[in-house]
Amino acid sequence: MFLDRIVNQTRIDLIQRKIDLPLEQIKQQALEQSRTRDVLEAFEPQGRVHLIAEVKRASPSKGLLAPDLDPVATAMLYEQNGATVISVLTEPHFFLGSPDYLTAIKNAVSVPVLRKDFIIDEYQIYEARAWGADMVLLICAILDDQQLRHLLQVATSLRMRALVEVHSQEEARRAVAAGAVIIGVNSRNLTTFEMNPYLIRDIRRTLPGDRVIVAESGIHNAADVRRLARYDVQAMLVGESLVVSKDIPTQIQMLLQHANHTTQVKICGLREPEHINAAIDAGADMLGFIFHKPSHRYIQPERVSEVLAASQSYTQPRKGQVLPDLVGVFVNQDADTINAIADQIGLHYIQLHGNETPEFCQRIKRPVIKALSLQQPADLARLAAYRDVTWRLLIDTPTADWGGTGRTGDWELARLAAQQSKILLAGGLTIENVATAIRQVQPWGIDVSSGVETERRKDSQKIAAFIAQVRQSENNKQELLEH
Ligand SMILES: O=C(O)c1ccccc1N[C@@H]1O[C@H](COP(=O)(O)O)[C@@H](O)[C@H]1O
């Protein structure tokens, strides 16, 4: 198995390196280095997704990626185009890395540098520092609890930061218990090389809010990074899609643009497989199901699994396609019922569209989208009480029917709300008005139901046209930013 092979090889290599340069000497070299560059400072401002750009020639899962790559020139290009941290492979056998690359890169850039390697011994941390690294990778899968704590403590004693990598809930729990501040969720299983793009979503919501989360592996395109914006990661670690790119600056700008300035789209009130297909094929980010019985869009909870199973796009996504997240919409139901339905269907978010209080939101065991309506500027003050106990706020048109009425609200008030919080804008959005809404309100996401229906039934063509319109308005925004 790969992980065993690489750890064995690392042990063998270490024996020789420790003979060539004993621990006391490498420690001395480490201590003689100038101050580390602080990764956590580099991750300011919070609320945006930073890029850790990786310099690697090869990987065991993909083979030779970029045989002619110039490590220093590539790292400089990364920095010039907005990378916050440079990750450097130093492992020579499987990744064709080298300590020399790390030192040369550290001298050529002004951002922090990560030693990306299979660290199993404190000696390697002193080495990392001696070579110039500001941060080290610690992989939970190859360390027991005692080793993890010890290596974290050695890194801290050298004023280095550690990126503690996990690939399961159990490893995430261990990382937190060991005191890891920066936790990387690797979508790739290092034993089988299998990818699980949904792992970050599931692990993210169990991690304490005060940890810095890094998404690792398999980050290639706009849809990949749009998802990361939903999981509130502070950084994405990207290697392969950069080193194989023919145009690295454009690839970096695309990743950063879509991770930080894209508009999330939720298509709500779905009840039929063909409309789920249409939403997925068009690139919807979230699918909403209404569990409010008086609504004509009501769907029985047990029916949701059936319609998803009958949706070909959901059960057999195209290669590389990542499925949208599932949102359940509830109005003034009790928390136990909501939590039970969420578990039963596997909902990812709960939208509360009634009079639910901030205290009630805290009883929901999934990230909460709280719908609020704004009638006058004074109503903006109500948002504050919900901000810390919800995942996102949703601004909908005030109506007696709670929502889904097809009526637009006050976009000026919504714009003010969007300046304070990441909001979803809902209420009367249509193919015709959505571009204006995005331009005027600048919401984090938009939510539509009536506007993609014909005679009270979802309309696949309208769903596709609506999402295309949103993406088009983003392209226009990008062009405006560039000129
Ligand atoms: O759509 C419904 O029937 C509904 C019922 C009760 C609460 C919320 C509901 N829908 C939400 O309303 C907006 C969509 O509004 P519109 O139809 O586009 O005007 C969205 O947040 C839905 O989740």
UniProtKB/TrEMBL annotation:
Organism: Dictyobacter formicarum
Coiled-coil intervals, chain numbering: none
Residue ranges occupied by any Indole-3-glycerol phosphate synthase domain in the UniProt entry: 3-254
N-(5'phosphoribosyl) anthranilate isomerase (PRAI) domain residues: 265-468
Gene from which this protein is expressed: trpCF
Family the UniProt entry places it in: In the C-terminal section; belongs to the TrpF family.
Keywords tagged on the record: Amino-acid biosynthesis, Aromatic amino acid biosynthesis, Decarboxylase, Isomerase, Lyase, Multifunctional enzyme, Tryptophan biosynthesis
Keyword Lyase: yes
Protein name according to UniProt: Multifunctional fusion protein
Enzyme Commission code(s) on record: 4.1.1.48, 5.3.1.24
Keyword Signal annotated: no
Pathway membership: Amino-acid biosynthesis; L-tryptophan biosynthesis; L-tryptophan from chorismate: step 4/5; Amino-acid biosynthesis; L-tryptophan biosynthesis; L-tryptophan from chorismate: step 3/5
Biological function: Bifunctional enzyme that catalyzes two sequential steps of tryptophan biosynthetic pathway. The first reaction is catalyzed by the isomerase, coded by the TrpF domain; the second reaction is catalyzed by the synthase, coded by the TrpC domain.
GO molecular function, one term: isomerase activity
Catalysed transformations (reactions): N-(5-phospho-beta-D-ribosyl)anthranilate = 1-(2-carboxyphenylamino)-1-deoxy-D-ribulose 5-phosphate; 1-(2-carboxyphenylamino)-1-deoxy-D-ribulose 5-phosphate + H(+) = (1S,2R)-1-C-(indol-3-yl)glycerol 3-phosphate + CO2 + H2O
